[in-house]
Amino acid sequence: MADRYIEPDTPELRARWGNFAWTEANAAKAKDIIARYPEGRQRSAVMPLLDLAQRQVGAEENTQGWLPIPVMEFVATQLDMPIIRVVEVASFYTMYNIAPIGRFHVQVCGTTPCMLRGSDDIIAACKARGMKAGHITDDGLWSFTEVECMGNCASAPMVQINDDNYEDLTAERLDVVLDALAKGETPKAGTQEPGRHTVEPSGGPTTLTAMVTENHDYRGEW
Amino acid sequence: MPKVTVDGVELEVPAGATVLQACELAGKEIPRFCYHERLSIAGNCRMCLVEVKPGPPKPQASCALPAAEGQEIRTDSEMVKKAREGVMEFLLINHPLDCPICDQGGECDLQDQSVAYGRGGSRYHEHKRAVTEKNMGPLIKTTMTRCIHCTRCVRFSEEIAGVDEIGALYRGESMQITTYLEQAAKHEMSANVIDLCPVGALTSRPYAFEARPWELKKTLGIDVSDAVGANIRIDSRGREVLRVLPRVNDDVNEEWISDKARYMVDGLVKRRLDKPYLRRDGKLVPVSWNEAFQAIATLNPGNSIAAVAGDMLDCETMFAAKKLVGALGSSLLEGRQTGMDYDTSSLAAVNFNTTLSGIETADAILIVGSHVRWEAPLVNARLRKAVKRGAKVFLIGPEWETTFGGEFLGEDLSVIGNLPDHVWETIRDAKRPAIILGGAALGRGGLEAALSVGEQIGIVRELEDGTTWNGFNVLHMAAARMGGLMLGYAQKGGLADVVAAKPKVLLSLGADEVDYTKFAGSMIVYIGHHGDKGAHAADVILPASAYTEKAGTYVNTEGRVQWADKAVFAPGDAREDWTILRALADAFGVSIGFDSFEELRSAMISEVPALGSEGLADYGSDLPAGGGSASGLIAYPVKDFYMTNPIARASATMQQCSAELLHGEEIAETAE
């Protein structure tokens, strides 16, 4: 992801986020998270706290959430650690957004299994809605990233949108999901294949068929 | 003590050694970029690959692999050769081929190692990565496209300097080394990352495009910007000193120097006194040496003469001046320019007795009146090591930003006399307690009060291993201080005694911190190298040599005698200090008993034998009893780290550092 860059630290950014502080609920959560780590090792809480901060930013501006520099500084102060170490963490892990992001971050897997199962169509469908990498659509809804394998190859192709995966996609099924999201609904996460439950074999099992309904001892047959 | 075999040679290595160290003990050269003896092990450059059996059938990074009993290590096999070539090729994939315009050229680890261990050419034809330049302040110039991500600079600032400001952002190929928001690196040893950088990513900004390393004459010198006496290498071309680099000396500076020691040298060509001056009708006018000496010859001071030594003097100059003043029948010598009058009858009581490397082993340290970061940055690095080993540090004095934690107990000297219970218990029960007394705490009874604390806790003691531990330390700030004290540059009442004696002639040997208004009735003969405060007050100016322009003996704050060589000639009509003093003797019509530098040195050594051999001078370990009480608010004498001596004050680089780093002025865009 060579095109990841930290949003510059401008006076406007300071003005908007300079007095960032936990909401009451998040303050309690943060306290809880920090308490998970042994005395003197509180810095370990940097990752969950950054996530919490990102979610709070997201809730405030109704987006997926991202980490402005002043917010990272806030987390650093919370944990009494050098700010550069926080920025290192935030810039290393791609699940932390370090630049403004839309309400839905559409991450399309383009790795081989997904590609073979039609991720090109999925990407084309996204592009048709005006999504492109490193860009928020004008309505503020969509951000787009093409990512590498997300580990859902058995139900390829897939996209990850914010916290949920949508699998077994076609361009049409993706449109349904995106339309639902745009309307503020919560589409069913996971596979979009009618009749498929999770990642069980499509069209029923072809191996270990005797095990479908009851436990079966195959050992005698080997 | 595991036994290993390196390329067929069996040898025993110390327990805990790495395979790389084992190979070095066997005399094998292992190429490396990220590994550095004084930093933690990162293991990310992969250049040190060797073949180790038993182990996986692939080359292993020797820097991060502990040497174990019975290992068979090969550094000369086909596998190792191929591995090195491979790593080198990978490192060079994104490294630009801009050696002709790179300041590291000629002293570049990457250059040297690619010649020695790389393959002839590259098989990479795609685009190379490009990274934007990062601002790291007025001292460090960056060309981050050249960076190979060894992270030495990151580890240095985190581990040695103790200021987390450099980090590695992003990941993989996009990784970039930067300071937070590209702010300037703000600590006193920041420029050491330039030496650490194995490539040309971090280079020296003031020295940019000045010279190639092979054009430079290298002279071994001693730094005079503080009392640590860091070992330096002075690189000069023609008559100009172009840069100063640290030399390795584990007892003194390890292999670091402060930014001031490194960068004040551009002040050596500014504001120099390059011809004699006489004050005529209130104005200093340039004259010839003859005229100057004729004027001095008419002074006839008799025994009403005194000498005040500056902070950067070598022992030879001070000795020559002492002989001159003595030949005229006076013994008014003083080196503590600001008027300090602590008791110097026992040199052990004003010495850094643990030694600089010894302070690392202390387990409880009480620092009184010393802003260590500014007064001796290298000692600060040692203190940080001590704390990492578990030492507890307490400080008395106004708060400053330590890099090692520590507890500030108060700002008044009287705290020495009534330490809080937990502090008292900690230093009393410590195995190796140490007290560090800074310049701000020496006067007003501070030395005696600290000595008495030392006596009560038995700060001089026999350790379990039979060695003697003397934890009483005085941290001086002037490179000339210990040498001056050994040569008797101290009056009982300090400078006030000299003032009270109302000398007819005051020899000011580069003394730029003296309040000359007190010497209104004296003829001030200034022998120094910079047109600073001393020269402003002088009636006669005799241009002398700076520390790079004369050979000399220096004694650092731990009493270590060190010799420095002469790198360049002084500019214009300036002469070496001792020759001026020798000529002055003729002008005054007295004999001081030497005609050459060798004669001077041997006379000095026969008077103070300790100056005759390099190494620690022995002051004994008997401390005077001390006693009494101290009081008064502590105020650190160093107000601006970058402006503590006339050379630094004349240096454009130091002025810029002071303005940008300490006084927060906007960064001046360079017109590059």
From TrEMBL, chain A:
Q: Which Gene3D superfamilies match?
A: Glutaredoxin, NADH-quinone oxidoreductase subunit E
User: What cofactor does this chain's UniProt record say it requires?
Assistant: [2Fe-2S] cluster
Annotated region described as Disordered, given as residue ranges = 186-206
InterPro entries given for it? NuoE-like, NuoE_dom, NuoE_N, Thioredoxin-like_sf
Identify the keywords attached in UniProt to this record, alphabetized. 2Fe-2S, Iron, Iron-sulfur, Metal-binding
Q: Which PANTHER family match?
A: NADH DEHYDROGENASE [UBIQUINONE] FLAVOPROTEIN 2, MITOCHONDRIAL, NADH DEHYDROGENASE UBIQUINONE FLAVOPROTEIN 2, MITOCHONDRIAL
Which protein, by its recorded name, is this?
A: NADH-quinone oxidoreductase subunit NuoE
Q: From what organism does this protein derive?
A: Novosphingobium album
What are the top taxonomic ranks of the organism? Bacteria, Pseudomonadati, Pseudomonadota, Alphaproteobacteria, Sphingomonadales
Automatic annotation (TrEMBL), chain B:
The keyword Iron-sulfur belongs to this UniProt entry's keyword annotation: yes
Q: How is the cofactor bound?
A: Binds 1 [2Fe-2S] cluster per subunit.
Q: Where is the 4Fe-4S His(Cys)3-ligated-type domain?
A: 79-118
Q: Which reaction does it catalyse?
A: a quinone + NADH + 5 H(+)(in) = a quinol + NAD(+) + 4 H(+)(out)
Query: Is Repeat there in the keyword field?
Result: no
- Pinpoint the 4Fe-4S Mo/W bis-MGD-type domain residues: 216-272
Q: What class of enzyme is it?
A: translocase
Q: Which UniProt keywords apply?
A: 2Fe-2S, 4Fe-4S, Iron, Iron-sulfur, Metal-binding, NAD, Quinone, Translocase
Q: Which cofactor does it need?
A: [4Fe-4S] cluster; [2Fe-2S] cluster
Which SUPFAM superfamilies does the record cross-reference, listed alphabetically?
Answer: 2Fe-2S ferredoxin-like, 4Fe-4S ferredoxins, Formate dehydrogenase/DMSO reductase, domains 1-3
Q: Where is the 2Fe-2S ferredoxin-type domain?
A: 2-79
Q: Which SMART domains match?
A: NADH-G_4Fe-4S_3 (SM00929)
What family, per the record? Belongs to the complex I 75 kDa subunit family.
Q: Matching PANTHER family, A to Z?
A: NADH-UBIQUINONE OXIDOREDUCTASE 75 KDA SUBUNIT, MITOCHONDRIAL, RESPIRATORY NITRATE REDUCTASE
The task this protein performs is described as: NDH-1 shuttles electrons from NADH, via FMN and iron-sulfur (Fe-S) centers, to quinones in the respiratory chain. Couples the redox reaction to proton translocation (for every two electrons transferred, four hydrogen ions are translocated across the cytoplasmic membrane), and thus conserves the redox energy in a proton gradient.
> What is this protein identified as?
NADH-quinone oxidoreductase
